[in-house]
Amino acid sequence: MRTKLLVCLLSLTSLLSTGSFGVSFSWTNYPAASGTVAVASADVNRDGFPDLFVADDEGVLSVWLGSASGTFTRSGGVDISTVVNMVTGDFTGDGYPDVAVLESDGVHTFASAHNGVIVPSGGFTGLGGGREIIAVDLNGDRAPDLAVTRCVSVCQLDTLINVGGGNFR
Ligand SMILES: [Ca+2]
Ligand SMILES: [Ca+2]
Question: Which of 35, 61, 119, 164 could bridge 56 with an S-S bond, Cβ 3.0-4.6 Å?
Answer without folding.
Answer: 35
